[in-house]
Write a structure and sequence with these properties.
The complex is a heterodimer of chains A (284) and B (305).
Chain A: H1 3-11, H2 13-30, H3 32-35, H4 73-109, H5 111-125, H6 129-140, H7 144-170, H8 174-181, H9 186-222, H10 234-243, H11 249-277, H12 279-283
Helix pairs in contact in A: 2-4, 2-11, 4-5, 4-7, 4-9, 4-11, 5-7, 6-7, 7-9, 8-9, 9-10, 9-11, 10-11
Chain B: H1 2-29, H2 33-37, H3 44-53, H4 60-72, H5 86-121, H6 126-140, H7 143-157, H8 169-199, H9 202-209, H10 214-251, H11 257-267, H12 270-298, H13 300-304
Helix pairs in contact in B: 1-12, 5-6, 5-8, 5-10, 5-11, 5-12, 6-8, 7-8, 7-10, 8-10, 9-10, 10-11, 10-12, 11-12
The chains are: A mainly alpha (284), B mainly alpha (305).
């Protein structure tokens, strides 16, 4: 990020707040063992379903209370950031690369490849995203690797459609025609001339998609078809909390707030990036 | 118009064929379909005989066409757990899901349109900031968390509304808010930016110069032109709405297709999963065609393109 962008970021308060949230989440994820007061899997059945410290029966030892196995909620939320960020970033990278390459090829070569890709995206868009992910997860079985795989498989469509649309416009521009006339190879034109111009759009969509992927992972885990229950994640905490919602509201409330704040931070920065990087808005 | 509509219909048929291939493949992705039907300790000869009997030894394309001819007639086979036709089970639960989807669209529009208009009319004021923050939070909340919070605070703590099941009109409020919140936030944000854009157009200035009152400028001139993108977003959100319904129906024990399918997925009741996925996907394709036709009715310019 250059100096000018940093200045713009500071100027737009909402984006600045968003970037601070993201920074805090990243730091928390990286330094979880140092920040978390307890081992996230350490259970103490004597302290099960202890309310947050400010409640009547709460204890200063467990700021946000404990779950049904007496595990410290704050520590589990802190460790949960790791999985959420990991899934969010890796799935966006995988689906982004795959979708972009297909979008570039379809938009540039048109013809059969393009028609085939367009129908393929339409077929995939005909399925409710979470339902398709659930159906595939039920086949593959729960697990972190499978969650990343499924979300990447179901997430590429957005990029390919968007990139294809941009490429259709770009391939008619003078500089692409000039490159063709100079005898440059298609591969060089696609990756050397077109891709750099599509890249800002990919960055914007990718940023916003990290938020969607975090929610998708939490949804799958919440429904019991996501990350294994031994790993502390926000989705599994919410699933646990659901069973105790009438007696221990805090178990489901705080992981949800963690998801909401993280997603909010990403959305705020994503919105700002869209305004800054989208060339059409930049020139206006 | 007819030419473009025919092209869209042709594409829709191709997409539906693609959908049928994916749904057909679901059966094979879940392992040996025959193994799901028989006890684990069944002798291999019996498994083989069953496989032969059910046609699983036929070439894949023969099996696909057999599946397709069944799918066209709504025949996806029997549910393993209910021993009833899978399609029948899905269709029995469809009214509850349609009811939830319609109620959530209604709630989404009832929240989004006033919020979008107010934030646009009062843009860059405290009202706009508060409204925009509400919309942003709505977009950032996981559906299932909102559902749990409504269930606890509205249903359990303050006992304002029933929390599970289907029956009276009160039963649908919490699930409908849960499913519709994200769509409401998305529409409100889009409507705000579109209205702000429109309010700077010359025809709005002309209406004002002619002495048209602010209320009519906003409602009759600006809103009318900002409504078409709302339709686009609604059509795009159908998948999200139905996906959200899967989770919401589970939380609120709403007896719809979503909850039933989740149970089928967990029980590996593949015929029900296939029938349910097929019905929902076909619904989405049909809704998209319907939206395309509606566009041409609402915006005559599209008809002449």
């Amino acid at each position: 990020m250059n100096k000018k962008m940093m200045k713009m970021l500071y100027k737009r308060k909402t984006a600045f707040v968003g970037s601070i949230i993201i920074l805090l989440v990243i730091i928390t994820a990286l330094f979880a063992p140092f920040v978390a007061p307890y081992d996230p899997n350490l259970s103490d059945l004597d302290k099960r379903l202890m309310p947050p410290s400010w409640e009547e029966d709460g204890s200063q030892e467990h700021l946000l209370g404990t779950d049904h196995l007496g595990r410290d909620l704050l520590s589990r939320i802190i460790y949960g950031t790791r999985i959420s960020l990991l899934v969010g970033i890796i799935t966006v990278l995988l689906s982004g690369i795959f979708g972009t390459v297909l979008g570039l090829l379809g938009g540039f070569y048109r013809g059969f490849i393009d028609s085939f890709l367009m129908r393929l995206t339409e077929v995939q868009l005909a399925f409710p995203f979470i339902l398709l992910a659930l159906a595939i997860m039920s086949v593959l079985g729960p697990g972190l690797r499978n969650v990343i795989l499924v979300l990447s498989i179901t997430g590429w469509v957005m990029y390919s459609r968007l990139v294809r649309g941009e490429v259709l416009l770009l391939r008619e521009l003078e500089y692409v025609k000039a490159a063709k006339a100079l005898g440059q190879k298609n591969r060089k034109i696609i990756f050397g001339h077109i891709l750099p111009n599509v890249f800002p759009t990919i960055v914007v969509v990718g940023t916003l998609r990290v938020a969607n992927m975090i929610i998708a992972e939490a949804s799958l885990t919440f429904l019991g078809l996501g990350v294994e229950s031994s790993i502390p994640t926000w989705g599994s905490m919410l699933a646990d909390g659901r069973n105790y919602i009438t007696s221990a509201w805090w178990v489901a409330t705080f992981p949800g707030i963690a998801i909401m704040l993280t997603v909010l931070g990403i959305n705020l920065v994503g919105d700002w990036l869209r305004d800054v990087l989208d060339p059409r808005l930049r020139t206006s | 118009m007819s030419k473009s509509l025919l092209r869209k219909l042709r594409n829709a048929i191709i997409v539906l064929l693609g959908v049928s291939i994916v749904v057909f493949m679901l059966m094979y992705l879940s392992g040996d379909p025959v193994a799901l039907l028989l006890p684990m300790d069944t002798a291999p000869e019996i498994v083989e005989a069953m496989r032969d009997n059910l046609g699983f030894n036929d070439p894949l394309y023969v099996q696909y066409f057999r599946f397709l001819s069944g799918a066209v007639k709504g025949d996806f086979g029997l549910s393993l757990h209910h021993n009833q036709p899978a399609m029948e089970l899905i269709l029995e639960r469809m009214p509850a899901t349609i009811e939830l989807a319609l109620a959530s669209i209604f709630i989404a529009l009832a929240i989004a349109i006033p919020l979008g208009i107010i934030t646009a009319v009062f843009s860059n004021t405290i009202i706009d900031y508060i409204g925009s923050i509400i919309a942003l939070l709505g977009q950032s909340m996981p559906v299932f968390w909102l559902g749990l919070m409504l269930l606890y605070f509205i249903g359990v703590k303050f006992r304002l509304l029933p929390i599970t099941g289907r029956g009276s009109w009160q039963h649908i409020i919490l699930p409908a808010i849960t499913v519709g919140a994200y769509t409401a936030a998305t529409i409100a944000r889009m409507l705000r930016s579109r209205m702000i854009e429109i309010m700077q157009q010359d025809y709005i200035k002309t209406a004002r110069a002619k002495g048209v009152r602010q209320k009519w400028v906003v409602l009759k001139h600006a809103l009318r032109n900002a409504v078409l993108p709302v339709l686009t977003i609604l059509a795009m959100q159908i998948g999200t709405l139905l996906g959200g319904a899967v989770i919401t129906e589970t939380i609120f024990a709403w007896p719809g297709v979503g909850r039933f399918m989740l149970q089928a997925i967990q029980n590996r009741d593949i015929a029900v999963v296939q029938a349910g996925v097929f019905v929902l996907a076909v619904s989405i394709v049909l809704i998209n065609i319907f939206t395309d036709i509606l566009y041409t009715v609402l915006d005559p310019r599209i008809r002449y393109e």
